[in-house]
Amino acid sequence: MALSPTPAPPPASDPVLELRGINKSFGAVHVLRDVDLSVYEGQVTALVGDNGAGKSTLVKCIGGIHTADSGEYFFDGAPVTVNSPRDASDLGVEIVYQDLALCDNLDIVQNMFLGRERRRGWVLDEDSMEQIAEETLAGLSVRTVSSIRQRVSSLSGGQRQTVAIAKAVLWNSKVVVLDEPTAALGVSQTAQVLELVRRLADNGLAVVLISHNMNDVFAVADRIAVLYLGRTAAQVSTSEITHSQIVELITSGQTEALGPGAGRNGVNR
Amino acid sequence: MTSSVLPLADKSESDAPESPVVTHVKDYLARLRGGDTGAMPAVLGLVVLCTVFAIMRPRFLSAGNFANLFTQGAAVTVIAMGLIFVLVLGEIDLSAGFASGVCAAVLAVLLTEHGWPWYLGVLAALVVGMVIGLLLGVLVAKVGIPSFVVTLGAFLAFQGVSLLLVKGGTNVPVRDSTILAISNRNLAPIVGWLLAAATVGGYAALQLRRNRNRSRRGLSAEPIAITGIRVGTLAILVGLAVYVLNQERSRNVVISSLRGVPIVVPVLVVLLLLGTFVLRRTPYGLSLYAVGGNREAARRAGINVDRVRISAFVICSTMAAIGGIVAASRANSVDSNTGGSNVLLYAVGAAVIGGTSLFGGKGRVLDAVLGGAVVAVIDNGMGLMGYSAGVKYVVTGVVLLLAAGVDALSRRRAEAAGLR
Description:
The complex is a heterodimer. By secondary structure, chain A is α/β, with parallel strands linked by helices. In chain A, 32% of the residues lie in helices and 25% in strands. In chain A, the strands form three sheets. A six-stranded mixed beta sheet of chain A has the order 6-9-10-3-11-12, with helices on both faces. Chain A has a four-stranded antiparallel beta sheet with strand order 2-1-4-5, with helices on one face. In chain A, strand 7 and strand 8 form a beta hairpin. Chain A is globular. The termini of chain A are close together. In chain B, 74% of the residues lie in helices and 1% in strands. In chain B, helix 5 packs parallel to helix 7 and helix 12 crosses helix 14. The chains are: A alpha/beta, B mainly alpha.
């Protein structure tokens, strides 16, 4: 396998989640072509690419909403098949979608446990859910909500994002994929959410961050994976690439510094 | 929003000098201003209406009329309780009125023309209600026809079924003493008191247990004073109602004594408790709110949305069947117009007046009782004042529109204030 000129960061361990040669077509449209992606514990892997590069489709393949036409899905080094969202969450892979999927009319605790409520017999175990939700938020050092019994409709965009992320973390997940978590946020809220993203990785989770904002990417990501027209253009360490090189990769699929080969299979393994 | 949100640590400090009761009242007022009106408009309306009617027609306050209110409003209230489940989803069931009529007709025909015992007749009526709900639910959830259209079609069809069952313009008398007892007989006064004591005692015990469990886990528990006020208010209201209902209502005591809580009241209370338990305390109830609030989020959370939607229609139509049985009991007979004319609109009106939103995601079974009381008071009070049915319809229609207007406006206000 051709190595990119700038070898990837020290993958201290093997990737917790690895995709190899993923293909996905919708009818005649070939959206993903031999895409590779490696995600490591304790690291934030940014997934970047222009509109239509296949980021969302790739995320849906990871999350089990789409099934890849071909390719391999490894989790903890073992090949697995993921055909439904349930399969993904059973593995410990949680996706926070861009539209968050929160119910405005329910409170924070109810949203965090939605569909997986704790119960005693037929009855909801409200108290233990509230306690666990509070512990989870405290564990993420979230101090911006005044009461976890307030309805989600009363929260700001950043707080909603926080709740959605906390919901994903609640289930002892190993991999959390965040689809554009800062897209609709103001400056200070973006900072809060990025801080939270960083904290997730520091707590040992593998985090995949999809973003259009290069400042965000360089602020928190350890590694960057670039998609260009459905192909993996590069997977590199953040410390070994510049802002302009990333932009070049996003817009043209290759960059001088990484050599001409990077555009086709500039993967780092 | 962000600026007004306090970090957790600061909150306990800033609240420390304030008594918990004051905080509680302040929270309530803030919610009220934010458009989360809760039961307030219905309770206020009830107080105003009762005051006006009591002044204009003192007989409105008599024990006899008070008992009448319950028996008059019971059927509509039960149908409204079922409608809450469908309204929480953001759907509507326009056929609930005639569904109750069909179930009542099934009951009456089986009892009177085929001599079935009452329990089999009731069972048959309930099964018919469930099947109706299943049919409506499948058409809405699986076929994908808007509930408005499905139930409008069913409204017409059930009217026809009702006509066919009672054979044209005749009416089918109900003579079974058990069925008639629901709306026409009363509990012995002592039984009324015992049930009242059990209700208040049970409520107090539940509240105290909840508070104890929460403080043991270190969660914020309701201040004891607020619990006391709530239990006390309930005790006074229930005690007063039972006291009045236990007064002698018969015009001629020598011929027959008429006192005690009408049997339909405990029936309503049991349905209220059961419905509230299902909506508030079970995962199923939560899934109803989730589907009503954000169907896509519910689907992604692994909730079987189709099944939840179908089940809500089944509950609604089954409650309509119970409402039909109550109506048959009150009228001593069933005709082709049972559950027809204003019954459905009164039921929808009761739910909306009580505070259930037509936009989905919000509603309590208690709303049906409060709203049902408002509708019954208007109907009863205006009858006492001697107004014709025409005027009553106009006034009830206006009140329904008023409640729907409050719903829409408070929703807009709540969106602006970030509450909904």
